[in-house]
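explain this:

___
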Amino acid sequence: MSDRDPSAPQVGPSVAHGCASGTHHDREVPEADLASEIVVRGVTLRNRIVMSPMCQYSAVEGMANDWHLVHLGSRAVGGVALVMVEATAVAREGRISPGDMGLWRDEQIEPLARIARFIHSQGAVAGIQLAHAGRKASRDVPWNGGGRLEGSAGGWQVLAPSAIPFNETDPSSLPLDAAGIGAVIAQFEAAARRAIAAGFRIIEIHAAHGYLMHEFLSPLSNQRSDSYGGSLENRARLLLEVAARLRALMSEDLPLFVRISATDWVEGGWDIEQSVQLAKWLKARGVDLIDVSSGGTLPKATVPIAAGYQVPFARRIRDDASILTGAVGLITEPKMADEIITQGCADLVFLARQLLREPYWALKAQQELHVEPAWPIQYGYAVARKAIK
């Protein structure tokens, strides 16, 4: 079960430079580059750089706090166009860990609204990723090992499409029945309403990395025999229903994104062909962009990790489904990020760990690409001194 999906493209360290037949563009010629604006529905992003949602495991009962304000706000100050709040649980039992962010009750709105207001005050756009951890829920925080939490240690019942646990040593998951599936859909709707009330201008559904929505998509984790299992249409049903419900409640000017894993990296699992078809269905339901990641269904999948290793998936979905895409995965250098845009591989570049290391990466990248960065006025001393030198 550890073999890589044979239908997946062979990728390597220079993948970003080859996603459009290795063509290079003069900066004055391409239709778009990393520094150019993009308009999605009624939202204008000042460049193509996105802070990817990254769990901080620092909330208490789902409540955002000062850590989240400074962590997220500093990347808005640092020049990114879109700041995506980490995977935010739509239900208490949908958390990965007790430290996860949440939007399952109204009291959680204002702490997140405070963050959204600050992000917007810095010229960036605040987005939020809504999630349910499914069979990967009830875990300890990573710095404590991330193991399964039992009830005596504050754990809770884990829900999934089928009884199959994520790790063989974990207890069986509780398969969702029809009422449970209906409850999940309602939880996503309620969380989206709260996200809108908090002032977020982009909502992303988390359907990647082996969490609940992805669990329904993959035949490795979904072995149901009802209308939510079996065929691709059935396995995609829950995500498509959630996407349609969210699109219906969101105003026409607010974009809806979906993050997917383009492949499980395992033979017989979810793959790029199914991802392309899913993207077409999602577009028909009003989804504006597919945020293209991979993996997460099985703990022992062999993933060929290298710089830009997931970029070809974003290009394939963009071309074949005619939908905007975001590229993510070990994108660290400004030149690579810029070429992903100029070569038409994706429409946005999502940065994760690199932005943890360098909160001001976006400003430095623009400088390196010979674009005048919009440094905060409060930092004018440093900028002026550098210019004098």
